[in-house]
Every structure is written in structure tokens, then in C-alpha cells.
Amino acid sequence: MSEISRDVLFFPESQRPFLEPHLPPLDGESKSSNLPFTTLTFATSLDSSLAIAPGVRTTLSGPQSKAMTHYLRSRHDAILIGVGTALADNPGLNCRLKGVGGYGGQDLRGQPRPIIIDPTARWEFTEQAKILALVREGRGRAPYIITGNPSPPAKQKQILEEHGGKYITLNTTSTETEAHRFDWTAILGSLTNEGFRSVMIEGGGAVINTLLEQSSQGLVDSVILTIAPTWLGQGAVVVSPKRRFDAGGNAIPASRLRDVKWYPFGEDVVLCGKIKL
Ligand SMILES: NC(=O)C1=CN([C@@H]2O[C@H](COP(=O)(O)OP(=O)(O)OC[C@H]3O[C@@H](n4cnc5c(N)ncnc54)[C@H](OP(=O)(O)O)[C@@H]3O)[C@@H](O)[C@H]2O)C=CC1
Ligand SMILES: Nc1nc(O)c(N)c(N[C@@H]2O[C@H](COP(=O)(O)O)[C@@H](O)[C@H]2O)n1
Predict the structure, then answer these.
(1) If 0-12 CB within 10 Å is exposed, 13-18 middle and 19+ buried, where does residue 233 land?
(2) Which residues have CB under 6 Å of ligand 1?
(3) Where are the alpha helices (DSSP H) in 26-128?
(4) pLDDT of residue 33
(5) Ligand 1 centroid from CA 17, angstroms
């Protein structure tokens, strides 16, 4: 069996319609805001964890919900993760559904552009990175890395550009607790400048927790979560955004979904909704 046929995933036509209201429009119609249609999507445990420990790749999705995630990848122009995930997972970030480009389809049709948020350009990848191997095999696109470092390492820049990727430089700001932070509107604006009309944001913890802060959660158009029937336990990488307070200083929920729909998917459930603003 070839490497490609072993990897191929199937997501039946009959299971696709329920997702449609939660996805970027098929006709490419853009939003009024000029920013890409933004879907927040990840797999979580019952204790709101993404991975069993920092730096550890952890399988949560069952086969059906994994195939659904790859369908989501085929429906977005770009797929975004933080550098923590790039380092922990050595991810492919391509779409391995039967029929997309590289998996029986033409060219790279249906393959999203991977976007990595790496403010200091600390990801020291080599040609062996899975994401680049897939590019050489014609099964994925080269990543664009958003950085605040005006002089990223020459070696990585060369490798990236040889594969058709690039660094995109964006200004960072400093907060009391963080030395180099991107504003999410600026991140999404830079994707618009590159011509992307939709992006799915997969994680990891820091990416999701900053996106769900009050100042940026309004940028999220759709939320599609896979919930797996497992508790990862203490010490895991947790989704838990910064606490919010009302005018009287009382703690209030950091974020809440509206128009929620739940769909069983094998042993998992898939939750779709919108952020209530
Ligand atoms: N179950 C799932 O669906 C998923 C699981 N994961 C898991 O999540 C874990 C990784 O999570 P985590 O360690 O939190 O890493 P992240 O992937 O969230 O990357 C975090 C880093 O990205 C940079 N970053 C994130 N947001 C911003 C911002 N707004 N501005 C500037 N820089 C930003 C920072 O880099 P710097 O430190 O250089 O400042 C930050 O430390 C992995 O174990 C992975 O397996 C990941 C995705 C999905
Ligand atoms: N949907 C989903 N389910 C899980 O169980 C996961 N661990 C993840 N992780 C995300 O997918 C990336 C790996 O992608 P490749 O299979 O290498 O293409 C990983 O980096 C996370 O972003 N997602």
C-alpha cells in the first residue's frame, strides 16, 4: 500500500449538510468586515484540554470526527496554529480527504495554506518537517509564518522560500505579561492582504485563549468543536480564556456560545455555534 493510499480519509456526502450553516460561503461571497471568515475549531477532552501535556501530540478525535476536521480544512483558504503547536506536533496541516489535490484531485485544489504564528521566529524547522515533506510530495502548501522578527533566521527563510512559503512581518506589542503579542485584528488583516477569504484556527492553547479574550472574540464567525469522551487530567494543555469581570468587579463567564447545535459523531460529539457578543 502506498503512503498516499494509507493516509486517505473519507467524509461521506450524507454527513456534510449539517456543517454548511457554520462554514464560509461556498460562492466566495465576502463578509462586510473585510477580514477573513474565521472558524475556531479544535478537539477537546471533557476537562477542556487539547493535549495531555505541553509539547505532547495527543489524539482526541475519533476516525469520524477526524475526517470531519479534514473536510473543514478543505473548506478554508488557510489553517492557523501557534508556534507551540508547530514545535509539539510536527503537523502536516494539509487535507487528506479523497478527491482533494494530492489525494486524487487536481493540483492543490482543496488544500489550505498553513499559517504559523511565531512572533520571534523561534521555530527552527528543517527540510524534514512534515509540512515541507508534504509540499515536496505535491500534497500540501508551504506555510506562511507570521513573525514580529524583522530578520528571521536565514537558513529557515531559505528553506521556506524554496518550498513556496514565506515569513510575513507584523508589528508586535508588549503587555504587562507578554513581550511580543500580535493583535488578532492585525493577524486577520494580514491574511486578507494575502488574499485569504477564510481561515480555520486550530490551536493550541495560547492561540485559542488569546483569541477568546473580550477584545478579539468578536472576530470569530463560527465555532466547531470536537468533544472526545475522555478526561486528560491535571497538567494538560487547557482551553480557559482570561477571566472577565463586570462593572461591579464580579467574575462573569469569559465567553458563551449561542445558536448551539450538537451532533454525535462516532464516540465524539461535534458542537457548532457562534460566539454570543
Ligand atoms: N486538540 C487539538 O485540536 C489541538 C491540540 N493542540 C495542542 O496544543 C498544544 C500547544 O499549545 P500551546 O503550547 O499553547 O501553543 P500554541 O500553538 O498556542 O502556540 C503558542 C505560542 O504562539 C505564539 N502566539 C500565540 N498567540 C499569539 C498572539 N496573539 N500574539 C503573538 N504570539 C502568539 C506565542 O509564541 P511565543 O512563545 O514565541 O511568544 C505562544 O507562546 C500542543 O500540545 C498541541 O498538540 C494544538 C492544536 C489543536
Ligand atoms: N481535530 C483534531 N483532533 C485531534 O485529536 C488533534 N490532536 C488535533 N490536532 C490538530 O491537528 C494538527 C495535526 O494535523 P496533521 O494530522 O499533522 O495534519 C495538530 O497540530 C493540531 O493543530 N486536531
Answers:
(1) exposed
(2) 42-43, 50-51, 54-58, 60, 81-85, 88-89, 117, 119-120, 122, 180-182, 202-207, 210, 237
(3) 63-74, 83-89
(4) 77
(5) 31
Structural contact between residues 239 and 217, judged by C-beta atoms closer than 8 angstroms: no
207: phi then psi, degrees, rounded to nearest 5: -60, -50
- Looking at all shown ligands, the one closest to residue 185's CA atom is 1
Positions of the chain with pLDDT lower than 50, given as ranges: 1-2
Alpha helices, DSSP H, located in the chain: 3-7, 63-74, 83-89, 130-136, 154-162, 184-193, 205-211
- Give the tens place of pLDDT for each residue, 37-87: 999 999 999 999 999 999 999 999 999 999 999 999 999 999 999 999 999
| Ligand 2-lining residues (CB < 6 angstroms) | 43, 58-61, 69, 81, 85, 89, 91-94, 202-203, 226
* 204 upstream amide cis, omega within 30 of 0: yes
Instruction: Look at residues 94, 148, 153 and name the one whose alpha carbon lies nearest to residue 125.
Output: 153
Residue located nearest, by CA, to atom 13 of ligand 1? 84
Q: What is the model's pLDDT at position 31? A: 67
Taking the C-alpha atoms of residue 57 and residue 142, their distance in angstroms, rounded to an integer, is 21
Residues above pLDDT 70, as percent of the chain:
96
Query: Domain limits of the chain?
Result: 34-276
Q: For ligand 1, atom 26, which residue shows the shortest CA distance?
A: 207
Dmax (CA) for the chain in angstroms is 64
Does the domain formed by 34-276 have CATH 3.40.430.10?
A: yes
